[in-house]
Amino acid sequence: SDSEKVDYKKLLSNRSVWIVPIIFVVFNIGYYGISTYMPTYLVEGVGADPASANLAVSWQSLVGLPAAIVVGILLDRTQVKNRKYIVGIVMVVLAVCYALAFRMPSVGAATFLMIFTGFIVTFVPVSLYTIGPDIIRKGSYAAIILAIVTFGQNLGMTLGPLFVAYIVDGAGGDWTACAIPMGALALVGGIIAFLIKVQAAGKTEEK
Description:
Elements: H1 8-12, H2 15-46, H3 50-78, H4 84-101, H5 107-120, H6 123-135, H7 139-170, H8 179-193
Helix pairs in contact: 2-3, 2-4, 2-6, 2-7, 2-8, 3-5, 4-5, 4-6, 4-8, 6-7
């Protein structure tokens, strides 16, 4: 029943419980790494003025706000039964975007990338937060699973700027050094998304 006590051995041994926050970590490493340092890259690497560089990056958030509502409605109306496929596909697309981010040749190109990613990134957190409670469909597990997912989200937010700064500094200021690491992390996130298993409604385990 929903009121049963949490079996921590069952919880912690469930692979999917850990896959979801890991995806959130690699997702946010790219997202926050890029949103934090893209203005600096555009100024130093492209020669943009600070105002134009900051405006280009702001489009990611400006698009993301209405996109979150649109994506939520789309997911609700399409009734996708297993949203891990959405996460997996979007993370693979983001792997390309993350790899190209610090290779943008102009402010215009960077603006286009920020608008595009600003929309598609919203599919990931919205989907992950709905997948989490479905891993073990019992009310007693929902809060702690969401706490683990949120931990992954916050860890990624913290590591993102540090990750980019460490790589660029280690590469002697070469921004393109971020391409392979960031793209690879997102690609791994996309691949492991397909390994998530959730419990079907009214069933004990997903077969």
